[in-house]
Automatic annotation (TrEMBL):
Keywords linked to the UniProt accession: cGMP biosynthesis, Glycoprotein, GTP-binding, Kinase, Lyase, Membrane, Nucleotide-binding, Receptor, Signal, Transferase, Transmembrane, Transmembrane helix
Domain of life: Eukaryota
GO BP term, example: intracellular signal transduction
Keyword Transmembrane: yes
Major location category of this protein: membrane
Record-annotated Guanylate cyclase domain positions: 846-976
Name of the protein in question: Guanylate cyclase
Top EC class, one word: lyase
Top-level taxonomy: Eukaryota, Metazoa, Ecdysozoa, Arthropoda, Hexapoda
InterPro entries (alphabetical): A/G_cyclase (IPR001054), A/G_cyclase_CS (IPR018297), ANF_lig-bd_rcpt (IPR001828), Cyclic_nucleotide_synthase (IPR050401), Kinase-like_dom_sf (IPR011009), Nucleotide_cyclase (IPR029787), Peripla_BP_I (IPR028082), Prot_kinase_dom (IPR000719)
Organism of provenance: Panstrongylus lignarius
GO molecular function: adenylate cyclase activity; ATP binding; GTP binding; guanylate cyclase activity; peptide receptor activity; protein kinase activity
Alphabetical list of SUPFAM superfamilies matching this protein: Nucleotide cyclase (SSF55073), Periplasmic binding protein-like I (SSF53822), Protein kinase-like (PK-like) (SSF56112)
Membrane topology: Single-pass type I membrane protein
Region spans: Disordered: 1070-1093
Amino acid sequence: LSKVNNDSSLLPNVTLVLRWNDTKGETVTTTRAITDMICDDVAAFFGPEGSCYVEAIVAQARNIPMISYKCSDYRPSEVPTFARTEPPNTQVTKSVIALLRHYQWSKFSIITEETWRPVARSLEEEAKKKVNNMTVNHKKIIMDRHKCCELVLPCCQTGIWYQLIQETKNRTRIYVFFGTPVSLIDMMTTMQALQLFEKGEYVVIHVDMMTYSPREATKYLWKPKTFNDPNSCHEQPGFEKRARSLLVVVSTAPLQNYEIFTERVRLYNTKEPFFFPTPTVFKNVSYVKFVSIYAAYLYDSVWLYARALHELIYGKNGRNITENLIKEVAKNGTKIIETIVRTKTYISATGFKINLDTNGDSEGNFSVLAYKPYNITVENFTCTHHLVPVGQFQQGNNNQLGGYPELKVNWTIDWAGDQKPEDEPSCGFDHSRCAKGESEGSIAAAVILAIALFCAMVTTLSMYRKWKIEQEIEGLLWKISPQDLLDPQDMMSSPSKLSLASATSLESRCVPQVFAWTGKYRGIVVRLKDMKFTKKKDISRDTMKEMRLMRSFIHDNVNAFIGAVVEPMRIVVVTEYCAKGSLYDIVENEDIKLDKMFVASLVHDLIKGMLFLHGSTLGLHGNLKSANCVVSSRWVLQVADFGLHELRHCPENESVGEHQRFRNLLWTAPELLRDEAHGYRGTQKGDVYAFAIILHEIIVRKGPFGGCGREEPEEIVQLVRCPYSDEPFRPDVDLVRDSEVGSEQVISVMVDSWAEDPDMRPDFGTIRSRLKSLRGGKQRNIMDQMMEMMEKYANNLEELVNQRTMEVYEEKRKTEDLLHRMLPAPVAKRLTSGFGVEPESFDLVTIYFSDIVGFTAMSAESTPLQVVNFLNDLYTLFDRIIKGYDVYKVETIGDAYMVVSGLPLRNGDIHAGAIASMSLDLLNAVKNYKIAHRPDETLKLRIGIHTGPVVAGVVGLTMPRYCLFGDTVNTASRMESNGEPLKIHISQQCCTALHKLGGYQVQPRGIINMKGKKPVETYWLVGATEKAVKPTEVDLTELPPPLFCRPRKSPKMMGPVDSRRQSSVLRTCAQPPAPRPLVRGAQSLDPLPSTAIPRSPVKRSCHSLQEKGVVCSGICGNGALVSDPLLVDNKRWHSLETVSAEPCTKKSLATRSSLRSWLFGLFNNTTFNASDGSLRKVGYQDLQPERESIV
């Protein structure tokens, strides 16, 4: 402004006055400032910074000129009152086209971030013009990196570049990239990793609108964190070829005399109206304020306006210049911009000649950067080469060049390869340009010959291999003939043989044992493991060598491998028999007290066995878990089930359900879980991880991952494989600290052994030395320890007997609770007291029948599980409602629901009102009920009620039922079947009873014909009044829990699984334990009561106290209650008619125990399977008649 106002040759007698406003680049603030200035009669606008499209429209509305110096938005270019000295982003596309034309690259791909999309679109349009005739192979748009990382999207990772380069690299050689320098480096680093720059075939052209400076140019090659390391660029492998494959188009740096201009800018900044002085803290140091290139653009905009205004005012001779004329011309935006555009060029403050296009936009001045020798130092980082300008785009005669600038190369470019890269391979991307060779026939013949030789070689090797295997099988010592096993037919057809119960010690008889398949081989008891296959299994040579190696293992802590029986469809592995079962069974049995010395002995036995295996030729176990560690009769732990991974892997996965399969993986290391294809083979570090889980299992005694807060094995395995956080998922070590053995040394070994990184886990030699303190420095004999255990067991025997007695009484209470659910309370009480139940007549009762309309069709369209879940939810709702009324639920058959009132306890005339009020409540509940798997359908209930006489009694020996007999039952059923959906159909007798009682609203239906009946008049029950029977208040918390548990998602869990008892941590209602092949005694009905006595989840009782001559009155050794009279032949009951009318003289607890056994058998079909064994031990062999007389 000072230069214009002081220049007498420019705008004489006209003074330009400044009015400024800092709008901070905000559109709303800028628009408000513009409107205020328009009201103050401002002549022209210079700016704004940032966005300018809305502001240009506002200025256009008043025809006021606006010349922007810092706005790259392409949209204002079409506004006739707008011009700018900063080139818009789209202007750089002309320079990119000129660069491609200079090096004759006519095929290229565009990679752009979203913010550069207009520039990419402009480049694509320019390339497709006829004058250029270029081809864009690909155009890929990616999200801005900052936005990706802010939203935590996959594009924040560098892996997105790998996918993008893989998609485009085979159809392009030249990439034009629009985006941030960080994304540029990620893209080129990915290309370098794919070795695309090794031969110099690829080039990346990057575009940046910022002005070049050596310091700023480092961002195209290195990320900021690189400068923190004291190294050189030459220490980075592959960096030089990557840098030589990069060309950058940037705004040209100002000339040398530009410093004079920036010095004047600093001077004027300190004056009015800005008053921007140098801070005092910098006055005594070499501090220079940075002046951006936009100061030159602002200077150019004012100078252009002043020249255009001078030409419009003084350009015409003889014109009368007045003040009004000056104001009118100064504010005429259209004329001002037209005059500026007409000048076409101007000399910028940067020292360059700048062209203006037809829209008044500056075309800028751009240069090309390439990697050349240039010393640069940034902090501790040095490099002898850098990106420097090697050429400049000169506007020149644009008409000859089609309107594009011309690239003038000052320095030759050092390409990554021997010569300039081409935009397409010499043979084309699909090799279509190269002619086919004449030797095609000879190549085909060579291929055929090679295939024939290969087939012949394979055939020969296969025959030789088969012959070799046969020779080895004939001489192998591990192969056992089925005839060598004692009674092999019986052994191999039985699903299990009792193994550990054969021990003769008192502890073996009183400690529950697990079933294992055993046999006799050459006079000794051996353990057999059957591995079945779905198809014929051929044993590989490596497997046979492994069996031969395993047979040679002799160690006190390694379970001896004796041999194997080989058959086409299965293999039976024969190993040493251990009478005490597995370590898993011992840990789960809480009757066995494991003190510190016992734990130390087991742990050190396990370590010694693993040291032997890891030091052997086999090298590892591969399937270590507590179930694969067995304990001999001398309480010596032995490692079992090692090796033979290929044979064990297939049958184990096929013979167990989904639940058991995931349970078997609880001891598997995370790296093996992630490698499903080869993880079953195991590693030494995987064995160390399994040892840590077993160590936690022995100390805590809650199963693997016990107390971790997770119950599903599948969920635990998934958390170990892929943890949700950086902290790996492991068992809770706080439970170890609470135990006697849980010292910090033990916890340290445990945590180190299950480390996520396998390399961080110690070997078993290190573990052995670190756990020496576990034994307290003593080498005590294990038998001495056993004697101490027996003393402790004797001291705890009295407590154990008291606990068992409490469990018996608790089982009795549960049995009675279940019996009261199945029979009316008076009838159940009479039966349990020893009385017979005779049929009884009732003069007047009211019977309710209902069914679901359309149930058959809905069942056909639903799965069986959906139907069962639906009926259970519906009838549970009904049961809660009828709990408030004096009614008795007789039965449910499919969708039919039957309720009666007035029996077995008579209630006067209330029975009709109770059924009527209950029916209205049930109907209201059904109208609001939503079917879970068909929520859009309305449940239609059809209800029928009849009042009349009936006879009731207990019928049958097997599964006795309390049944109703008489025409009243049939009539009530007919009332239901002849009713209508969502209505209550009542008979004349019921209507009379309701009128007598009062409080109910009925409507006549008319005469209807019912099957087997005369035409009768019936009614609809439509409502009730205040006088109707009201339900009593019911505390829902006192209701018994449901008998029905929803099935697991995987039906495989219902199949046979490992006979070992499952861990207490994983047993819930949603995940019932799998049925065991053999059942010992009647099991507890624990899920039935609403509250349970606190007890250990895995308590086990003595197998049979009767073996030592103990006489149990009412309590057997297996925990079952048996009635003494039922064991005497002359006191059997063969029918209900022979039941005495008088109560039994002996009302012992044992009398009710038979009901408990009967109820257990009712739900499990194993009424006598369990107790037969115990009864036969005391001489009762013929138990079949006893089954008939149990009722």
